[in-house]
Amino acid sequence: xxxxxxxxxxxxxxxxxxxxxxxxxxxxxxxxxxxxxxxxxxxxxxxxxxxxxxxxxxxxxxxxxxxxxxxxxxxxxxxxxxxxxxxxxxxxxxxxxxxxxxxxxxxxxxxxxxxxxxxxxxxxxxxxxxxxxxxxxxxxxxxxxxxxxxxxxxxxxxxxxxxxxxxxxxxxxxxxxxxxxxxxxxxxxxxxxxxxxxxxxxxxxxxxxxxxxxxxxxxxxxxxxxxxxxxxxxxxxxxxxxxxxxxxxxxxxxxxxxxxxxxxxxxxxxxxxxxxxxxxxxxxxxxxxxxxxxxxxx
Length: 298
Fold this sequence. Notes:
Elements: H1 2-14, E1 19-21, E2 27-29, E3 33-40, E4 43-49, E5 59-65, E6 73-74, E7 85-87, E8 101-108, E9 111-112, E10 116-117, H2 123-126, E11 127-128, E12 133-138, E13 143-148, E14 166-173, E15 176-185, E16 188-191, E17 199-208, E18 213-214, E19 221-224, E20 235-242, E21 245-251, E22 259-266, E23 272-280, E24 285-289, E25 293-294
Parallel strand pairs: 3-11
Antiparallel strand pairs: 1-2, 3-4, 4-7, 5-6, 5-8, 8-9, 8-10, 12-13, 13-16, 14-15, 14-17, 17-18, 17-19, 20-21, 21-24, 22-23, 23-25
């Protein structure tokens, strides 16, 4: 009977990896293992290894410490977690270029495990560039592309790099992925040499050259180009500049035609400014000065 009881007790302990036998007759909790951090843009995720079999009523809590702090503080979003990961994006960091220390432990009732400490890390060095948001507008032989920079408008992770991103685009006809072509584009750009009334799909990723970092591709976006314009577009468009006077020139084969021009520019904060020049005369030259207005005032 004693042998059978001992075997039963052994089976209970083996089936609950987070609970270890204690010499005093109570229970000691096993510390979490393999703690790691995953950072994508401004999303901070703490992960650790869990047990293969669930242990009832066991939760996990984490603490953090940054330079200048004498004591550990509770990590926001990572208290009494029942799973094996937590989101601590709400932690208040003055900079992403200083080391941060994390530690995590298991809890059950009044019992706690030893702290499992992660290796100190610098958030910026661990951060990955996430998928981008892309907006498309179709023309007959082109697609206008607008790319939102990585992170949010108030991102602290990429605040110093917003104007340094390079965007790489892959585009293909929806009917044939074998005809892919890759281009380097600006955050607001136009993809030319397309066919009218055709479905095109594309994906975009952001890159930093220094430090070298390549982001995740955006979701695939598809759009149909419009039917072919009956009126051909101007060709050989050029801009000559002298002081603050700019001359826009173009070629056009047909007479008795008026033209409309638009110039838009987006700064590093993604604020766009637009200049509309409508109902231009029959000439091939347009003189204008740099006078812009904010798009919200249109």
